[in-house]
Specification:
The complex is a heterodimer.
Chain A (H helix, E strand, L loop, with lengths): L5 E5 L8 E7 L3 H5 L3 E3 L12 E9 L2 E11 L10 E7 L2 H12 L3 E3 L4 H8 L5 H12 L3 H11 L2 H25 L10 H30 L1 E7 L5 H9 L17 E7 L2 E7 L9 H16 L2 E7 H4 L3 H17 L5 E6 L6 H11 L3 E2 L8 H11 L3 H4 L8 H23 L3 H19 L5 H9 L6
Parallel strand pairs in A: 1-7, 8-10, 8-11, 11-12, 12-13
Antiparallel strand pairs in A: 1-2, 2-6, 3-4, 4-5, 5-6, 9-10
Helix pairs in contact in A: 4-5, 5-7, 6-7, 6-16, 7-15, 15-16
Chain B lengths: L5 E6 L3 H13 L3 E5 L13 E3 L3 H10 L4 H8 E7 L9 E6 L1 H13 L4 E5 L2 E7 L2 E7 L4 E9 L8 E4 L2 E4 L11 H7 L5 E7 L2 E3 L9 E3 L22 E5 L2 H8 L23 H7 L7 E6 L6 E5 L7 H8 L10 E3 L2 E7 L17 E3 L9 H19 L13 H12 L23 H11 L5 H23 L1 E2 L1 H10 L9 E2 H5 L6 H4 L3 H10 L3 H12 L1 H18 L17 H10 L4 H6 L5 H10 L3
Parallel strand pairs in B: 1-2, 1-9, 2-6, 9-20
Antiparallel strand pairs in B: 3-5, 4-5, 7-8, 8-9, 10-11, 10-19, 12-19, 13-17, 13-18, 14-15, 15-16, 16-17, 21-22
Helix pairs in contact in B: 1-9, 2-9, 2-11, 3-4, 6-8, 11-12, 12-16, 12-17
The chains are: A alpha/beta, B alpha+beta.
Function (chain B): NAD-binding protein involved in the addition of a carboxymethylaminomethyl (cmnm) group at the wobble position (U34) of certain tRNAs, forming tRNA-cmnm(5)s(2)U34.
Keywords (chain B): Cytoplasm, FAD, Flavoprotein, NAD, tRNA processing
Subcellular location (chain B): Cytoplasm
């Protein structure tokens, strides 16, 4: 890979938009852009100070391509640490391509996926975990995962590990000193302090490891399965959450043949709703497969919503019984999983109807996916199911499985050291476990070089980042 | 007077020079040892002891490779101790007290027994260099002796300057002249040189000491030895003694501080932090009013005594007055005062892994000239330089030990990669994988390599193979043989270890903490196996370590493999780091100067951080 040339890519999503941003980075970024930029005020781009914006036109051979705003960032004070030029042009794919092609013909090369961030990393603008967080940040689509990614990008989490690692390293060197000078009368590592430090590290690691479960669902959305017979209004409910028509809705039973997933942010938390095909007995092969999948989805979900058609329950003993059975069946298989029985189409039920249903089914929630009745209440109940304490307290949350893996390994070694101390293990053997713990902590902060990681991290980006 | 051309000339006859000359000549090179004084070959300039923590492991490595330091130490030992026996086996460190005169004599005799080795006594004052390649040496008489390779082992002699109080005079050792000319010639060729300092304590008359008030420090009850060959084991040993300084002693020493070359600015160079002078200790640890002093006999017969822990360059009258206040030293008579010595060294980053200089082909440096301290460090470098000089002349692959193969590998890699600001001493903590680099397995690690290149003798190789096979079969015996609960439980009960109900493999119970080979030998099948297979102490020790520490040893091996991955990523020769703008400025400078061979070595260069390594990995297409 060549890293001292100048690269270019579209930084905004491809396709048409109001504006598009084209990013150029590299030693010649400004020099490449300058000849083709005609400032509205007759200024030379090369003379512009860092962190300034200029209005003007991109002109090739006297032919005007577009009116643009050009931002100039000079090395090392830019995202990549190199000279960076960002062109805000009009958002038509044609204009975007015209401008990019122009610069490709004049000294730029198309950036590889993640290359801007790779350069930022290589130029010391961010450490590994910060670079990883950039990818997460770009991908985040709800407030909670956004907050976590931002926190990680600012280095909060790796700073905490860095500090603990430095303390552990300090103790490790005291142990080494003690070993190499065991023949001389030097001061040794204070075992009580060491024990205290190990305890502290253990607590922090455990906390971070526990946060992974929370972090992971936040990052990917909390899975909620909507279960119910065909045409009870599952898709309509989803639409009520979404406030837009996304799932296919029709009056023909069984229209939703497959599971459809949709992520909706409620109160800043991402929920991944899984619309299932219902669990009605069927002869239809295609639908039968869908029902099997429904049970798998229930398995994966954190919350299950059992949805029934209110008006159809009225006076239908069979149906009432089947609903109770279904509820009990799901409950029996997933005893700890929050399960809500929702009676839909409450707009078509009178108060007397509701009393009758309550008598058979116990405490149920009435909603109307159509009118929105009970939807707000349902959102609040969903939020209550999720332990978002960690988020509210602004605690560090681990979402990266690489970090999770290293944390687990580091904890394992720390616990070995603790055990070794209790058993009076010779400190040269304990030092092996300490070194191992230092290694795994260093993996998180990038203080040890792991060549396998490098490639993986930047492969997760798309072009232009 | 001389051969028309030698293969190898070794300049200097200390620990480094003697090993270098022996190795080159034993491998078949026509070798000449030139030294200023043939009476001081193998001289122990400082303490009369070999080995110690990390250093003892090096002596065993030298021995495993076919060097002489272990054999000479065994033959001249007056006391032997295995230090750190209570710790894990990586920390077990052999150390001997030696008869200083016999040590030197044994060295001289050993060298005289090597047919291809010639000797000559004169100072080398210049080098013959033709087209950046060494061609021989020039003596102070103006004699030119030609050679295809030269190993410089000048110790503390290059422009050596001795300090005692305010007095200073040229000298390479007490009573010996300094060597001049070589530093000047090398710096004119573009070598960088520096100054270092070291010191030594007074030598006193043992008849003037009162040992009854000191604490005896005897050797081990069952002394071991350094060499893997059939050298003698000590049957009688001499004791050392311990005493302490006091607040009064410190006050008396402080009175001379204004006349101390350390404190009045006369000595500017850096001494070994880990082997401080007594004035340094008082100064740095002002709140301690007592320091240990070890009284070490200089030999079997001599009355001369070495006052370990009292290294000093204070004026002789201050030394004398202060020492007379030390318990047991009230009537002490001096043989000679302690002194400090400053000498030239060449920052070892100017060397390749073979210890050949980067600037002049076939010129090798070994020992204190490279900024190290210690007999063992010096001897091992000499051995490696001698081996590599011979190999290069014969167009063979260089002999380079990796960091997980030997302390010697760690030593040389540290020197040429990191350089050193103060006299470099080996520590176990310098080795990433010290659990693999034990004193008990140096032969298993190194003898096959040395035998393959024609240095280690066949006898050495056979002994190693026998030990390896016997230990392996004893280990499998423990893996395969079961114990009966009624036999093992009485032993476990005494050890407060939980009892067993079912018969199980012996390996399992042997792996428990506190269960040792001595316990296992109480089992009849074990003692019978030992007798039937004629297993000696070394095999028992090897077996015990392989069983009891197998978990840690395996773990360290896995970790070492991690290191090897980066060790295998080669950097092209003469790589131009200045074009990699994304490296830090410091990293570019250092890497350009040192030109590491692999990514792993680059990572060890000080000032190179992990992100620099990531940059390199990306550039090299990883």
């Amino acid at each position: 890979m060549i890293l001292n040339d100048t690269i270019i890519a579209l930084a905004t999503p491809s396709g048409a938009g109001a504006i598009a941003v084209i990013r150029i980075s590299g030693p010649d970024a400004i020099a490449v852009a300058a000849p083709f930029f005609k400032s509205a005020f007759g200024k030379d781009l090369l003379q512009k100070k860092s962190h300034t914006i200029s209005l003007g036109h991109i002109v090739e051979d006297g032919k005007l391509l577009d009116e643009v705003l050009v931002s100039v960032f000079k090395a090392p004070h830019s995202y990549t640490g190199e000279n960076v030029v960002e062109l805000s042009c009009h958002g038509s794919p044609f204009i975007q391509q015209q401008i990019i092609q122009l610069f490709l013909r004049n000294g730029c090369r198309t950036a590889e996926p993640g290359e801007f961030t790779l350069r930022a990393f290589l130029n010391g603008k961010m450490d590994l975990s910060q670079a990883e967080a950039v990818a997460d940040l770009i991908a985040s689509d709800n407030a909670a995962s956004h907050q976590i990614a931002i926190q990680q990008m600012r280095g909060g989490f790796s700073n905490e590990i860095k500090e603990l690692r430095a303390e552990l390293l300090n103790f490790a060197s005291l142990i080494e000193l003690e070993l190499d000078f065991s023949e001389e009368d030097v001061e040794f590592a204070d075992r009580r302090q060491f024990k205290e430090l190990l305890g502290r590290i253990q607590r922090v690691l455990k906390g971070l490891i526990d946060s992974f479960a929370v972090g992971n669902v936040i990052k990917n959305g909390i899975p909620v399965a909507i279960v119910g017979e065909p045409n009870v209004g599952k898709s309509t409910l989803l639409n009520a959450f979404l406030n837009e028509e996304r799932a296919l809705v029709s009056d023909i039973e069984g229209t939703t043949r497959d599971t459809i997933e949709d992520e909706i942010a409620i109160g800043g938390i991402g929920f991944r709703f899984i619309d299932t095909a219902g669990i009605r007995e069927t002869e239809d092969v295609v639908e039968g497969m869908g029902i099997k999948r429904t049970f798998e989805k229930i398995e994966q979900a954190q919350v299950v919503l059992l949805l029934v058609d209110g008006p159809k329950l009225l006076g239908n003993v069979d149906k009432l019984k089947r609903t109770t059975d279904e509820f009990d069946k799901i409950k029996a298989e997933n005893p700890n999983k929050p399960l809500l029985l929702l009676v839909n189409k409450s707009d078509a039920l009178s108060d007397t109807d509701k009393v009758a249903i309550d008598r058979h089914l116990g405490k149920v929630s009435y909603i109307s996916a159509k009118t929105g009745e009970g939807i707000e209440d349902l959102k609040q109940r969903l939020l209550q199911f999720i332990n978002t304490g960690a988020l509210r307290n602004n605690e560090t949350i681990v979402t990266n499985s690489r970090h999770y893996d290293s944390l687990l390994k580091a904890l394992e070694e720390i616990e070995k050291v603790q055990l070794g101390m209790e058993e009076g293990l010779s400190s040269d053997l304990m030092a092996i476990d300490v070194r191992e713990a230092l290694y795994h902590l260093g993996e998180i902060t990038g203080q040890v070089t792991n060549d396998e990681l490098l490639g993986n991290i930047f492969a997760n980006f798309c072009i232009g980042k | 007077m001389f051969l028309e051309e030698y293969d190898v000339i070794v300049v200097g006859g200390g620990h480094a020079g003697a090993e270098a000359a022996a190795a080159a000549a034993n491998m078949g090179s026509k070798t000449l040892l030139v030294t200023m004084n043939l009476q001081t070959i193998g001289q122990m300039s400082c303490n009369p002891a070999m080995g110690g923590i990390a250093k003892g492991q090096i002596v065993r490595e030298i021995d495993a490779l076919g060097g002489y330091s272990g054999i000479i130490s065994d033959k001249s030992a007056i006391q032997f101790k295995m230090l750190n026996k209570s710790k894990g086996p990586a920390m077990w460190s052999p150390r001997s007290q030696n008869d200083r005169m016999r040590f030197a004599e044994e060295w001289r005799l050993a060298l005289e027994g090597i047919p291809k080795l010639d000797f000559y006594q004169e100072m080398v004052g210049g080098l013959l260099i033709e087209n950046n390649r060494i061609a021989g040496v020039k003596t102070s008489l103006g004699i030119e002796i030609r050679a295809r390779a030269v190993v410089l082992t000048n110790g503390t002699f290059l422009n050596g300057l001795i300090h005692i109080g305010e007095k200073q005079f040229g000298g390479g050792r007490a009573g010996e002249k300094a060597a001049t000319g070589i530093t000047e010639e090398l710096t004119s060729l573009g070598f960088e040189s520096g100054r270092m300092k070291t010191g030594t304590p007074p030598r006193v008359d043992g008849r003037s000491l009162d040992y009854s008030v000191m604490i005896p420090q005897p050797g081990d009850e069952r002394p071991e030895k350094f060499s893997y060959l059939n050298t003698p084991v000590l049957e009688v040993q001499r004791d050392c003694y311990m005493t302490h300084t006091s607040a009064l002693v410190h006050d008396l020493l402080r009175e001379g501080f204004d006349r101390s070359p350390m404190f009045n600015g006369r000595i500017k160079s850096i001494g070994p932090r880990y082997c401080p002078s007594i004035e340094d200790k008082i100064n740095r640890f002002a709140d301690k009013d007592s320091h240990q002093i070890f009284v070490e006999p200089e030999g079997w017969d001599t009355v001369e005594v070495y006052v370990n822990g009292f290294s000093t360059s204070l004026p002789e009258d201050v030394q004398f007055k202060a020492l007379r206040s030390v318990k047991g030293f009230e009537k002490v008579k001096f043989f000679r005062p302690g002194y400090a010595i400053e000498y030239d060294y060449f920052p070892p980053t100017q060397l390749k892994h073979t210890l050949e200089t980067k600037l002049v082909e076939n010129l090798y440096f070994a020992g204190q000239i490279n900024g190290t301290t210690g007999y063992e460090e010096a001897a091992s470098q000499g051995l490696m330089a001698g081996i590599n000089a011979h190999l290069k002349l014969n167009e063979k692959e260089p002999f380079v030990l990796k960091r997980d193969e030997a302390y010697i590998g760690v030593l040389i890699d540290d020197l040429i990669t990191k350089g050193t600001e103060e006299p470099y001493r080996m520590f176990t903590s310098r080795a990433e994988y010290r659990t693999l680099l034990r004193q008990d397995n140096a032969d298993l690690r190194l003898t096959p390599k040395s035998f393959a290149m024609g240095l280690a003798s066949e006898e050495r190789m056979k002994r190693m193979e026998r030990k390896e096979q016997k230990a392996a079969s004893f280990v499998s015996f423990f893996r395969e043989t079961s114990f009966r609960p009624e036999d093992i439980n009485p032993i476990l009960e005494r050890l407060d270890s939980s009892l067993v109900k079912q018969p199980d493999k012996m390996f399992k119970v042997f792996s428990r903490p506190h269960v040792t080979m001595d316990h296992m030998l109480q089992l009849e099948p074990v003692s019978r196996f030992v007798e039937e297979h004629d297993l000696d102490r070394e095999v028992l020790e090897q077996t015990e370590i392989q069983i009891k520490y197998s978990g840690y040893i395996e773990k360290e091996k896995l970790n070492a493999d991690k290191l090897h991955r980066l060790e295998n990523v080669q950097i092209p020769p003469n790589f131009d780091y200045s074009k990699l703008k994304s490296l830090s400025y410091e990293a570019r400078e250092k890497l350009n100067a040192i030109q590491p061979v692999t990514i792993a070595q680059a990572a060890r260069v000080s000032g190179v951080n992990p992100s620099d390594i990531s940059v390199l990995l990306v550039y090299l297409g990883r």
